[in-house]
Amino acid sequence: MARLNVSTPPAIVVLGAGALDTARRIRARFPGSRVHGLAGRVSTEIAYEDFGAHLRDLHAAGTPIVALCSAGIVIRALAALLADPLLADKRAEPPVLAVAQDGSAVVPLLGGMTGVNVLAREIGAALDIAPAITTSGELRFGLCLLAPPDGYALADIERGKRFVSDLLAGETTRIEGRAPWLDDAALPRADDARLAVRITPLAANDEDSLVIHPRCVLAWIGDATPGDDIAERVRVALREQGLAPLALAALAAPVHHMSSESLADAARALDVPLRFCDTAPFDAGHAQDVSLQVRDAPIDVQSIGRARGTLTVIGLGPGSADLMTPAARRALAAAQDVLGYETYVRMAGPFRDDQRIHMTDNREELQRARHAFDLASDGRRVVVVSSGDPGVFAMAAAVLEALDEGRASHPAWSAVKLSIVPGVSASLATAARAGAPLGHDFCVLSLSDNLKPWSIIEKRIAHAGEADLVMAFYNPLSKARPWQFDRAIDIVRRHRDAATPVVLGRDIGRPGETLRVVTLGELKSEYVDMRTMVIVGSTTTRAVGDWVYTPRWYEPD
Ligand code: SAH
């Protein structure tokens, strides 16, 4: 079962401009939260097309939802999803609330186990109203006994529900162990009660108790042989000491095992964070075994060594939010540090207060890549952004160049978990707007001679012309390279007649986007700049109405 991150900022979803005032008041209370609005109706940080589908996506991703509309609309939108037995796991269900547009009512709907009432109270405080809390246990005791705070885990939800029913029916309870959050709760306490709330790391099988495990056990894995079932070794060690698996706070291992897949698999299987330390964080006895340390309070995992850093190179697509892949969006949401050229970093925002932004000049790619590795080697989750696709004249190659050149002097860089997330490249976005000019064989060339000799560029254009490839030109022209574009087109003209269609896409997917189709005969360097994508057709590329396409076939010789 996925553990829900209760500190995920909520998505504040509005249908129209009438709700914006209330949305902003709620947003101010939750750092990192964003307002989502219906595209075309209201302008917000995140636009959605279909309310129901958007709500279901948010719910499936475990994002807390604050919907500024009637409770009925929210219920209808989520009904099908909630009827699915696979999703019926209450503990993983994110909080869902309906809030009246004018801020006059807050109705917690779903997520009793994941803090919906806590959220409702906070929103109530922000709007200066009393939340419509309907959970009887919560009303009677002032908190949800089944939703302990971070650092604690409820042992058994079904037993927990029976326990709360018993208390509501008039039983009393003792408290065994340290439960500071219950100090102010209005629980019917009695020292001689039959029932007990028990706070213990020990596995308990006790009908008369509400058992809550503090996450206070640390497992040190001194040895991580590939293929070894570490999770099972940890489970056995816990069992031998009578400890509950839910009391496990984290796995810790020596730094030299940072790239171990078996360790990562084990942490995933046990659903706990994985930390790396230079030396064992406690006297671990035989380093070859799994050693457990039981502390007397929940463990602050951040204080144990460091995480394996990640470096994710993402492509944002050409500009508009709807052409960014969900994988890139997820990487951005998880990022602690975001690096990139200023324009692209701004395109990737807005960011939360806890995210660090490092903007650099466009030409400092290698330096940016080294900086990214340094941050990731410190255990941070780092994202490097490119426009379009990161592998097309962009940061992915720069990151690998930096690794190639720096791995000997920076061994920690090789332990970083590196991944590259593709994006919609400008040639593909431009082609789609124009029709299908890349419908048959094509090539992609950068006309910039900053990093390669101009003679290579001329040679490639000549060969592409001869091979009858459609050509997509990136970086067609800049102030520092004034004559190159005309030279390039001269070479193309030797192989194509003047009627060949040429597609010019400027700022595709960005505000002020323009698309223009001219013939090769008409093409002039004044029509292009650094923000333009140039697609020159082959001998078969043609127009149909306003569309340009390259057929999938050739006439037989
Ligand atoms: N990685 C990027 C390309 C970077 S090179 C990608 O995959 O799209 C930069 C060049 O890409 C620009 O000079 C321009 O030719 C082209 N380009 C990038 N974004 C564009 C856009 N939104 N519209 C048109 N051309 C674009």
Written account of the structure:
The chain is of the alpha/beta class and 557 residues long. The chain has 5 domains: 11-134, 3-Layer(aba) Sandwich (Rossmann fold); 152-212, no CATH class; 217-303, 2-Layer Sandwich (Nucleotidyltransferase, domain 5), CATH 3.30.420; 310-424, Tetrapyrrole methylase, N-terminal domain (Cobalt-precorrin-4 Transmethylase, domain 1, 3-Layer(aba) Sandwich), CATH 3.40.1010.10; 427-549, Methyltransferase, Cobalt-precorrin-4 Transmethylase, Domain 2 (2-Layer Sandwich). Strand 23 (501-506) and strand 24 (514-519) form a beta hairpin. Residues 318-319, 386-389, 392-394, 425-426, 430, 474-476, 505-510, 530-533 line the site of S-adenosyl-L-homocysteine.
CATH class type of the largest domain = Alpha Beta
Share of residues in helices: 25-40%
Assembly type of the chains comes to single chain
Mean pLDDT: 92
| Sequence stretches where pLDDT stays below 50 over 5 or more residues | 1-6
Span between termini: 62 Å
Number of helices: 15
Q: Give the spatial strand order of the biggest sheet.
A: 3-2-1-4-5-6
- Return Rg in Å: 29 Å
What is the beta-strand fraction? 15-25%
Brief write-up:
With 557 residues, this protein is α/β, with parallel strands linked by helices.
Itemize the secondary structure elements and their pairings.
Layout: E1 11-14, H1 20-29, E2 34-38, E3 46-48, H2 51-60, E4 65-68, H3 71-83, E5 96-99, E6 106-110, H4 116-127, H5 136-141, E7 152-154, H6 157-168, E8 173-176, E9 195-199, E10 209-214, E11 217-221, H7 230-240, E12 248-254, H8 261-270, E13 274-277, E14 290-294, E15 310-315, H9 326-334, E16 337-341, H10 342-348, E17 356-360, H11 365-377, E18 381-386, H12 395-406, E19 417-421, H13 426-434, E20 435-436, E21 442-446, H14 454-466, E22 470-474, H15 484-493, E23 501-506, E24 514-519, E25 532-536, E26 542-544, E27 547-549
Parallel strand pairs: 1-2, 1-4, 2-3, 4-5, 8-9, 9-10, 11-12, 12-13, 15-18, 15-19, 16-17, 16-18, 20-27, 21-22
Antiparallel strand pairs: 5-6, 7-10, 11-14, 22-25, 23-24, 23-25, 26-27
Helix pairs in contact: 1-4, 2-3, 11-12, 14-15
The structure holds S-adenosyl-L-homocysteine.
